[in-house]
Write a structure and sequence with these properties.
The chain contains 23 helices and eleven strands. With 573 residues, it is an alpha+beta fold. Among the domains are: 213 residues, D-Maltodextrin-Binding Protein, domain 2 (3-Layer(aba) Sandwich); 123 residues, no CATH class. InterPro entries: ABC_tp_sb, Bact_solute-bd_prot1, SBP. GO terms for molecular function: transmembrane transporter activity.
Length: 573
């Protein structure tokens, strides 16, 4: 099965959906089900038609309304914008414009709507990283109350919230659901399975390092593997050109911040133990008290953003970027670096988003076998020397539907219908095949993904395993994501460029974060769940306490550990 956005867009054009609806109703719905969905649904045809009938009926009061929604630009959202939005318009008579813009621009638009009260978009797909922001500012409709009250008449009876795998991340400490997941992807370890299983490579690595070449469990092993492959002659495998043991990016750009908050620092072991995020100290180094109030970011207030573990995390990233990565990587952004491993000269990448899977399984790539199976695999990322069992080990992006209170109720209802259409059980299996961003348990378990799993490099196995719950988005310790996120790339960019040492950059970062927390505290706009900063103390006081922030280790080089990928997969099953 090789489904692409191009082919599905062509189907939509053939159906006449992309040119806007001539009229609304079940005839269009049946044509959509025949031509676009087929058997790629977790529902029977009868159940699909029942869902479509609901959308036709519920949309009747809003026929002719024009609404605007927005998301970042990834394959899943391109499919929604180019195929599903026209189909929804044809079926319901609600004209949907689904804009695609950069992730940073989505946050900026959302922030502008929060500050101005002007209805810029009728719904947003924005990351659940903003859950702490939404919960504290109370400017978005909490969906628990919305579905039970004003939105009850436009809530799909078969929406089945329990089937969504990411609602833990979009539920606030008050127990309310604030966002509805639309797409999810994790950052995992990516490696050349064929290179790691080559007998000459295995023998040479064993001789050089004294242990078996395999999936690295910790950063010490990752570093050895990076060193081993960088500059290695792989002509015996038909590999031409220079080979590198690591891939990353380092340009001073908003995406540089994601690389650390999502969640390099927790992988190093900076935060506290706890799921889905460390408590009391999260992967941003922000500490909260028992009332979930942020109390500090610097070690002097009990935070960990400038702690020894954080310095270790940034130092290692810079060292590996400079020593073991393609020279151009230091000047790349997230989106520029993403496709590089698929070009065939990178051995491994610790920090690889599964959103790139669709683009990394194209048939003619040098990382694909002739039979359609990949030469690469994905696995859990290794952890740093400060990491302990129970600490967050990686990031999962959960792009989620968000309804602002500043959106008029009728427009919010129309947008909510569209949000449910693109996440419905009718549509979700097909959407997941196009974008490979799973949101529903019923989709993950669909037989079509059992069939396709061998061609997706471990993605299906990961999402069917209990391990997936250990990968989580930014949690509720972060009280204002838009204000705080920009501080990360600006300050860490200084360390990446060499303008500051990692310690200097992180000292500046935690102070900048505390300036924002202090302003929010003074303003009092987040009430009794807003920041309440601790008094500063000698950092040694906090470093001597159990848990995060953690004191500097005398030796930051631990015994390297690797595991066989095939054994790892067995443990997941």
């Amino acid at each position: 099965m090789n489904l692409s956005l191009k082919s599905t867009t062509a189907m939509a054009l053939a159906l006449g959906l992309a040119s806007g609806p001539a009229f609304a109703g079940m005839d269009e719905a049946r044509a959509f089900l025949d031509e676009e969905i087929g058997e790629l649904s977790s529902l029977t045809r009868e159940e699909q038609e029942a869902e479509m009938q609901f959308f036709v009926d519920a949309a009747a009061p809003f026929q002719g309304m024009e609404i605007k929604v927005v998301s970042e630009t990834i394959t899943t959202h391109e499919y929604e914008s180019q195929v599903l939005a026209p189909a929804f318009s044809a079926i319901t008579g609600i004209q949907v414009t689904h804009d695609l813009i950069g992730e940073g621009d989505v946050v900026e638009k959302l922030q502008t709507q929060m500050q101005s009260g002007e209805n810029i978009y009728d719904a947003y797909i924005n990351d659940s990283d903003l859950i702490g922001t939404h919960w504290r500012y109370q400017q978005v409709r909490n969906l628990t109350d919305w579905m039970a009250n004003e939105g009850a008449d436009v809530t799909l009876p078969t929406l089945d919230i329990e089937d969504f795998i990411g609602t833990e991340f979009t539920t606030a400490p008050d127990g309310k659901l604030y966002q509805l997941p639309d797409q999810q992807f994790a950052n995992l370890y990516w490696f050349r399975y064929d290179w790691f299983n080559d007998e000459k490579n295995k023998a040479d690595f064993q001789e050089a390092y004294g242990y078996e070449l395999g999936v690295p469990v910790n950063w010490s092993a990752y570093e050895d593997i990076a060193e081993f492959f960088t500059g290695r002659d792989l002509s015996h495998m038909g590999v031409e050109g220079e080979v590198f043991g690591n891939m990353d990016y380092g340009k001073k750009d908003p995406s540089l911040g994601w690389r650390y908050t999502d969640a390099w620092m927790s992988m190093a072991g900076m935060g506290s133990e706890g799921e889905p995020n460390g408590l009391p100290v999260d992967e941003w180094g922000i500490r909260v008290n028992e009332n979930s109030q942020p109390v500090g970011s610097c070690v002097a207030r009990g935070g960990a953003t400038n702690s020894p573990a954080a310095v270790y995390a940034v130092t290692k990233a810079i060292e590996w970027l400079n020593k073991y990565s393609p020279p151009a990587a230091a000047g790349m952004t997230f989106s520029e670096a993403g496709p590089i491993p698929a070009q065939g000269n990178v051995a491994q990448q610790m920090f690889w988003y599964t959103a790139f899977t669709a683009a990394t399984v194209e048939p003619d790539l040098p990382v694909m076998n002739e039979d359609g199976t990949p030469k690469w695999r994905m696995a859990p990322s290794p952890h740093g020397v400060y990491w302990t069992e129970g600490t967050k080990i990686g990031y999962q992006d959960v792009g989620s539907w968000t309804l602002m209170k500043s959106t008029p109720e009728d427009r919010a209802k129309a947008a909510w219908l569209y949000a449910q259409f693109v996440t419905s059980k009718t549509v979700d299996v097909k959407k997941a095949h196009v974008g490979l961003t799973f949101i529903r348990e019923s989709t993950i378990q669909h037989e079509s993904f059992t069939e396709r799993a061998p061609r997706l490099g471990g993605l299906v196995e990961f999402y069917r395993s209990p391990a997936r719950t250990q990968w989580s988005p930014t949690g509720t310790n972060v009280p204002d994501y838009p204000k705080l996120a920009q501080l990360w790339w600006q300050n860490i960019g200084d360390a990446m460029s060499g303008a500051k040492t990692p310690q200097e950059a992180l000292d500046a970062l935690c102070e900048d974060q505390e300036d924002v927390l202090a302003r929010l505290e003074r303003a009092g706009i987040q009430g009794d769940i807003g920041p309440k900063l601790n008094e500063e103390q000698d950092p040694e006081y906090w470093l001597s306490q159990e848990g995060s922030p953690k004191a500097k280790l005398e030796n930051e080089d631990e015994e390297p550990i690797t595991i066989s990928y095939d054994e790892l997969i067995k443990s997941w099953q």
